[in-house]
Structure to design on (165 residues):
């Protein structure tokens, strides 16, 4: 055991950047449709580790960096898959950033049958509600959504990836 680490502090460094990504895929099976959506979003060839919805304090919003293949990437994401031809599925993420930069931000993810505008509106409202429940003031809310109209098996995907500068 490392005696230099306090038991009340994590030995892991919190990520200091976040990136919003979204994509869609349509192919012959659900897993490949999901993988195609990751390719479209630019976050393929890494291992997504699903996290709950907290943005570390003072994290910077940046375009998705060049993450080494095979990396373990903390990610809050939503996705929706369907095999109903002609159906539209969507996924969206939002991030509420606090006015007080010592506080954490909130990441929300949502997916649904229907278009991306409604899904993005819903996920933005979820972020607003999360801040209201905490009694915090919002500086801004950012969001991103995708949609896929199914031809074979379709998938819509949206995510917030946390990484390091």
């Amino acid at each position: 055991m490392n005696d230099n680490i306090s038991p009340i502090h994590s030995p892991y460094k919190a990520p200091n950047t976040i990136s919003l990504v979204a994509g869609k895929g349509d192919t012959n099976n659900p897993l490949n449709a999901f993988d195609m959506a990751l390719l479209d979003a630019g976050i393929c060839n890494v291992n997504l580790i699903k996290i709950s919805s907290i943005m570390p304090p003072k994290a910077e919003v940046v375009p998705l960096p060049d993450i080494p293949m095979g990396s373990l990437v903390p990610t809050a994401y939503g996705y929706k898959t369907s095999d109903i031809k002609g159906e539209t599925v969507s996924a969206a993420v939002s991030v509420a950033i606090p006015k007080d930069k010592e506080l954490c931000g909130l990441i929300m993810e949502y997916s649904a049958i229907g278009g991306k505008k409604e899904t993005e509106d819903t996920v933005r409202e979820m972020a607003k509600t999360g801040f209201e429940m905490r009694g915090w003031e919002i500086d801004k809310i950012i969001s991103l959504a995708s949609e896929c109209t199914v031809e074979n098996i379709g998938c819509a995907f949206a995510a917030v990836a946390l990484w390091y500068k």
Summary: The chain has a mean pLDDT of 94. The chain has one domain: 17-163. Helices lie at 30-41, 116-134. Residues 17-163 form a domain with the Pyruvoyl-Dependent Histidine Decarboxylase; Chain B fold (CATH 3.50.20.10).
